[in-house]
Specification:
Blueprint: H1 9-15, E1 20-24, H2 31-41, E2 47-49, H3 68-80, E3 83-87, H4 91-99, E4 104-107, H5 109-112, H6 115-125, E5 132-135, H7 142-154, E6 160-164, H8 181-190, E7 196-198, H9 200-204, H10 210-219, E8 224-228, H11 246-258, E9 270-279, E10 283-293, E11 298-302, H12 309-316, E12 324-329, E13 332-333, H13 339-344, E14 346-349, H14 361-366, H15 375-379, H16 385-397, H17 413-425, E15 431-435, H18 443-460, E16 463-468, H19 471-477, E17 480-485, E18 488-494, H20 498-501, H21 503-506
Parallel strand pairs: 1-2, 1-8, 2-3, 3-4, 4-5, 5-6, 6-7, 7-8, 11-16, 11-17, 14-15, 15-16
Antiparallel strand pairs: 9-10, 9-12, 12-13, 17-18
Helix pairs in contact: 2-3, 4-6, 6-7, 10-11, 16-17, 17-18
């Protein structure tokens, strides 16, 4: 199957250049419940969803009302004018759904995982012009997901789309299902004409995270959202914790539409999403911190001591573990598997320099390559000629070539910080993290250090995230300033607006 063979016409006609909102309860429970929710969401959503058949992991749980619920969906169409959608998991389900003129069908994650089930459903749908959406399989397997799409396409079903609902993992995370954004992004890059719908309800597993996930989806150019919505979520018959009220749905849709949307995916390769960190289960260092980073930006993070600035940078570099949220670096989520690669592409500059005093400047710089060189060789500082030349070039960049073989305890504070910067840039990082790089320096050395960082930022197009206390330095050298207070972002704006926002930090 080639992407050029897939038409997005059906979706464009339906969505009309806006995110497609599909909303309704996880399960149809009663006719009254179905109709009440439909009337409550009809002004927010274009498509009404309700589960008629519910595949449950273990027997004994509510498995849906079955075929009678299809008549309730017909009434939704009659009374509200909305399109209606439901999940099908067998040929019998398909037959009943088509007989009741259900407008959109989707195949669930537990069905997508089985090629035999998908083939059975595809044969039952053969030649239909009803749109069919395929959820990702339970496990992170892009080939299996695309294989399901191909089976349906081979049965002459051309109005296709996919739903990203996250992936099950044994390891517990802050989400019910791990998003694994990179899998969905890879699918979209291969098949940009295939509509991509985000299911934040199943990813989150808790209603408090749904709004942030929707914004993430919009930033990543998803085509729409399927959101579980209930008039009494706490008493829902299934998945109560992840359902939201109609009013909350309206607020989420209103807010995400109001924010910036870009068609340039490369602009937002790195993001922080809903980052949370507690110490000793008492001190809340980070409270749902979220922001996005453009390549080549110089971002200063301002805030009083204890605001969470250092914890933020250490979390990005894997030096602190996080309780919740996601860090996406160069389109990849930072986890145990991707962290080594992230650390190789990230440079860290410390307030207290973190140098080995009895070593020369060049050997301190070479320690920046420890993650990318043989551990045995680097232990004895047996670096290659090329690596040594790179170290000398880094020292030349920071203006310390003549001090290459001086012990660092012979250098001034400003010079030692320059060695620290050289150590950070020797591996040609995509991102520089600077944690209070001028806090230990006199005003003259501090100014020189910031000028150097700005030079590196511009000449090498290296993104810099820099923690500072000094408002005047942040205003002078930053493209953008993020203000942190008590673990939360209180402002995030162009540096030229810093002065009018500064009271938010210290009030």
């Amino acid at each position: 199957m080639k992407n050029t063979e897939i038409s997005k016409t059906w979706f464009d006609k339906l969505a009309k250049n806006e995110p497609l909102i599909i909303a309704g309860p996880c399960s149809a429970e009663t006719e009254e419940q179905v109709l009440n929710i439909a009337h409550a969401v009809k002004d927010t959503a274009k498509v009404y969803r309700a589960g008629i058949w519910k595949p449950r992991t273990r027997p004994g749980y509510f498995e849906g009302v079955g075929a009678p619920g299809l008549k309730w969906l017909q009434k939704v169409k009659e009374e509200t004018g909305m399109l209606v959608a439901t999940e099908v998991a067998s040929a019998q389900h398909v037959d009943l759904a088509l007989r009741h003129d259900i407008d959109i069908l989707w195949i669930g994650a537990r069905s997508t995982v089985s090629p035999f089930v998908v083939q059975e459903i595809a044969e039952a749908l053969r030649g239909t012009d009803k749109p069919v959406l395929i959820k990702n399989p339970v496990n992170p397997d892009l080939a299996l997901w695309l294989g399901a799409v191909e089976r349906l396409y081979s049965c002459d079903i051309q109005n296709l789309g996919v739903i990203h609902r996250g992936f099950s993992t044994y390891e517990k995370t802050g989400y019910r299902n791990s998003p694994e954004w990179q899998i969905a992004i890879e699918l979209q890059s291969k098949f940009p004409n295939l509509p991509l719908i985000l299911d934040p309800s199943h990813i989150a597993g808790q209603r408090e995270l749904i709004g942030d996930l929707c914004q993430m989806g919009l930033d990543l150019n998803y085509d729409g959202f399927i959101i579980e919505t209930h008039n009494d979520p706490d008493n829902a018959w299934s998945d109560a914790a992840q359902q939201i009220e109609p009013e909350t749905l309206a607020n989420i849709v209103r807010n995400v539409r109001a924010r910036e949307k870009t068609n340039d995916r490369s602009e937002f390769k790195s993001q922080i999403k809903n980052l949370r960190k507690n110490f000793n289960n008492q001190t809340h260092a980070l409270k749902g911190v979220s922001f996005k980073v453009k390549k080549g930006e110089f971002i200063s993070v301002l805030g009083p001591s204890g605001s969470g600035k250092t914890t933020l940078l250490r979390s990005i570099n894997g030096l602190e573990t996080i309780e919740n949220g996601e860090i996406i670096f160069n389109k990849n989520i930072i986890n145990n598997y991707t962290l080594p690669d992230v650390q190789r592409k990230t440079g860290m500059i410390f307030q207290e320099f973190n140098l080995v005093n009895n070593l020369s400047s060049i050997n301190n710089v070479l320690t920046g390559l420890l993650n990318s060189s043989s551990k045995f060789l680097s232990m004895f500082y047996l670096f290659t000629k090329e690596q040594k030349l790179n170290a000398l070039q880094a020292l030349d960049t920071v203006g310390l070539l003549e001090k290459s073989y001086n012990r660092v305890d012979e250098l001034s504070g400003g010079q030692r910080q320059r060695v620290g910067i050289a150590r950070a840039i020797i591996k040609k990082p995509l991102l520089l993290l600077a944690d209070e790089p001028v806090a230990s320096l006199d005003p003259k050395a501090a100014l020189a250090t910031m000028q150097l960082l700005k030079k590196i930022n511009k000449e090498f197009n290296i993104t810099i995230l820099c923690n500072l206390h000094q408002v005047e330095l942040a205003s002078r050298f930053s493209d953008r300033v993020i203000g942190l207070s008590n673990g939360s972002i209180v402002f995030d704006d162009d540096a030229k607006f810093l002065n009018k926002n500064i009271n938010k930090l210290y009030s």
